[in-house]
Automatic annotation (TrEMBL), chain A:
Residues 293-305, 337-348 have a biased composition (Low complexity). It comes from Streptomyces tendae. This is histidine kinase. It catalyses: ATP + protein L-histidine = ADP + protein N-phospho-L-histidine. Residues 174-281 form the Histidine kinase/HSP90-like ATPase domain. GO terms for biological process: phosphorelay signal transduction system. Keywords: Coiled coil, Kinase, Membrane, Phosphoprotein, Transferase, Transmembrane, Transmembrane helix. Pfam families: HATPase_c (PF02518). It comes from the Bacteria. The keyword Kinase applies. Residues 24-51 form a coiled coil. The chain crosses the membrane at residues 6-25.
């Protein structure tokens, strides 16, 4: 044993062993510290990453909101202008109704409607204004309104009608959604085919079925459409692609907001897409009485006052049933007295005119004094100034 | 024109006139002038259901007897040209028929008048 203890080699080996043990433990400790450090760094990194993601998202949302606000107010202006222009066009169409100019006015009207619809669609995507208030309208008229808002409206054929109206709140959204569907149907089918619309009553409400004879949708397009229509609502104008595809995004939002359903998952018997709009009972009313057969109602109502001349018309319609004054169209009145009296009045000054009128009045008064003045005569003179002032006010 | 201010606040019509005419063009002036007389075609008890409400009401108007195009336009709220387009399409479908306006009396021959005048002068003058 002692010979071993005397051996320096043993001591050397021992020292080396101890040193190695110390070294190993130190290394271990260092490794552990390093590992902890790495873990800490990793945590920090993920934290930073999360923060970064959050702030990017927040920035994105903020940017989106700002875009939305800007677009919303810009579209509102455009929508207002389009509506204003539509009124101007209506007036022009009435004014030049008998001239060949009417054809061009109708063309401009068509373009203007499309322009208005585009602005409306973007506004819908930005949670904006849908347009002015509408009266209750028949389903047929709403469908025709939608038809008028697309480029190839001549290719749309409405095959059936139902006796139902749409509540005033839902008129614009349904018309806009249908217009987007019709726009898709006409743009993705060949120009010589017809897009058919069938309106049917079903237990759940009313179905408007749009069939096109196009090429149909690919699986990818169908998936995108389903996503936008059913599960995931589009928000804002980002992600609509280039060129932007508004259609289904707009329809999806309108469906959610106004409570009707649109599906495009079946194919039409002509090989294209069959789109079905389901309008639930909440959006339906009875057929509007005044609005739908407007030409007939107004047409039969107007000849009666016309027959009795302008005075009779003024008397007949100056009061409503409640005794309140009724606002009347004054245009027909303007034509008759305006064209008759304007050239004569131009030749006289105001004072001369007054003199003439005064002389006339004195004459009638003296005439009534000398002859027997009955209550009839008094009544008629009290009527005449009323009627003439009516005419002057207008012209 | 104070009367027109009240109109501007009105919402534009829901169904625009070009949709009602289905985008058809104006008929020739000769075909349907203001004084052309129009009436519903006889022997059509079955009214086709595919007509628009506007066309239906025009047919109703014309079913009573002859009306001039100007009168018909006066009874609807549409511009005259729109009414003419609708009437033309109804005529095409055979639901309406027209009678051309009565021809204006031909002016008497100037020579005959002069002869009569000369004769009268010779007799009384």
């Amino acid at each position: 044993m002692t010979e071993y203890t005397g051996n320096p080699l043993l001591w050397v080996a021992l020292v080396a062993l101890v040193a190695a043990a110390v070294l190993i433990s130190r290394q271990r400790r260092a490794a552990r510290a390093l590992r902890q450090q790495v873990q800490g760094l990793r945590d920090h990194y993920t934290e930073l990453e999360n923060d970064y993601g959050k702030s990017v998202q927040a920035a994105q949302e903020r940017a989106e909101d700002e875009t939305k606000t800007v677009l919303k107010s810009a579209m509102r202006t455009l929508q207002g202008l389009a509506a204003e222009q539509q009124l101007v066009l209506s007036r022009l169409q009435n004014k030049y109704g008998d001239s060949p100019l009417l054809q061009d006015l109708l063309e401009i009207d068509h373009t203007n409607s499309q322009f208005g619809r585009r602005a409306q669609s973007i506004a819908v995507l930005c949670d904006g204004w849908l347009g002015g208030r509408r009266d209750t309208a028949s389903v047929y008229d709403v469908v025709r309104s939608a038809q008028g808002r697309i480029r190839h409206f001549r290719r749309v054929d409405i095959l059936s009608q139902v006796d139902f109206g749409i509540t005033s709140r839902a008129v614009e959204p349904v018309a806009l959604a249908l217009a987007e569907l019709l726009d898709n149907a006409t743009s993705y089918s060949s120009p010589d085919t017809v897009v058919e619309i069938n309106i049917r009553t079903v237990p759940k409400g009313i179905c408007v079925v749009v069939d096109d004879a196009g090429v149909g949708m690919s699986d990818e397009e169908r998936a995108r459409a389903d996503k936008l229509l059913a599960t995931e609502r589009a928000s804002g104008v980002a992600g609509l692609g280039n060129p932007p595809q508004f259609g289904f995004a707009v329809i999806g939002l309108l469906c959610e907001r106004f409570g009707f359903e649109v599906s495009v998952d079946s194919s039409s018997p002509y090989g294209g897409v069959r789109a079905v709009v389901l309008l639930p009972h909440e959006l339906l009313t009875a057929m509007p009485e005044k609005k739908a057969p407007a030409p007939a109602a107004r047409g039969t109502a107007r000849p009666v006052p016309d027959a009795g001349g302008p005075e009779a018309a003024a008397l007949a319609s100056s009061e409503t049933g409640d005794g309140l004054p009724r606002r009347r169209r004054k245009r027909p009145m303007a034509i008759v007295p305006g064209s008759a009296s304007a050239p004569r009045a131009a030749g006289r000054s105001d004072s001369e005119q007054a003199q003439v009128m005064g002389a006339f009045q004195r004459g009638t008064r003296s005439g009534r004094v000398t002859e027997t003045a009955g209550p009839d005569g008094a009544d008629r003179t009290s009527d005449t100034p009323g009627a003439s002032s009516e005419g002057h006010e207008v012209s | 024109m104070t009367g027109q201010e009240g109109w501007q606040s009105e919402a534009p019509e829901l169904v625009r006139p070009y949709v009602i005419t289905k985008g058809r063009g104006l008929p020739d002036d000769g075909d349907l002038s203001l004084i052309t007389l129009v009436t519903a075609a006889a022997g059509q008890p079955q009214r086709p259901s595919r007509l628009s409400p506007e066309e239906q009401s025009l047919l109703d108007l014309c079913s009573a007897g002859y009306l001039s195009v100007a009168e018909i336009a006066g009874h609807t709220q549409f511009p005259l040209g729109v009414v003419r387009i609708l009437l033309a399409s109804l005529m095409e479908g055979g639901h309406l028929m027209t009678r051309p306006p009565v021809a204006r009396a031909r002016l008497a021959d100037k020579e005959i008048l002069e002869e009569v005048l000369n004769g009268l002068r010779a007799k009384f003058g």
